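pasting for ref
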Amino acid sequence: MYFLEFNDRTGRMTQQYLNLPVIDLADSKYKRKEFAAKIVDSLENIGFLFVDNVPGLDYDKLYQCNQWFFQQPDDVKKRLTRKAWNPENNNVYRGYFPVVPTEPSRKEAFEFAKDVLPGSVSPDNWFYEKSVWPKEDGEFPFKKTLCEFYELMHKTALELLSLCALGLGLPEDYFEYMFRDKPMSTFRLLHYPPWDSKPVDSAKIEDGKLLVTPDHADTEYLTLLTTFNYSGLEILTSDGKWAEITPRPHSLVINIGETFAKMTGGRFKATRHRVIDIGVDRYSTAFFFTPSFDTDVGFNILDTKREANIGKEELFGPYQLRRMKYEKKYFEFRDLPDILFL
């Protein structure tokens, strides 16, 4: 990792760039201990890293999925829009949400998940609501392709967690139980339109830059992000400055959420990050790797004293709801209904 600083004629720093550490999954079978140590070091000190050569990940096809969806007519998106923006629909958590002109978070998105078996969860638990999909014309298999990417990302995330476990001195399969039965992982396609009219004041930040996503830390366990080589992603460094991540073609950006950081007692960093307006339409995808609703996240996985975990049980579902809806104030989650049985 190293920084590159670009200065104007006055000698004032105008932008700080950051090259992240890189691991290559093509070599992970042969360099497991080396990569495990590298991942742990990155998550302790930066909270972000690049992953190259993810088996089966076709970035061009994934980008095609993004383009296909966001080029759909407004009436197609309206049929998939969450109830908060289209009262005629029943979906409250999955589906589409639009750009809201009054928000500094200037993005539209389509979200889906792997559906659980009917009757396996309470119908009131909208974390597991059935995904909604656009009708297809038969020319491009949008749903099939994305469901295949979902499974690929799930498998990749498990491999990365096995390396984390190895680096932490835990059994390599330590984290699998959290994601084995009904994980709540979400796959999100994203489009960030540039500000083409007067931006809201809350989108204006230092040095004349504009936000399209305000600074935040993810809440989930692990995020796998594809940026399609677009710039604009910035992270808050340990010295309190913002640095733009230098894009890396055909590589995943990996970061962890507050849940994982919490369960390592803060050893791992859920680094705050933001996205700035780059003046053109920007696209990305995010796979939020998320435990099952009933996973206990109320203990420190690195605390070897059994008695230290007694009485600290905290289920992930209620924790996630509190963080997203009541504490994080993300505009896309503000109007989620309560889960009545909690």
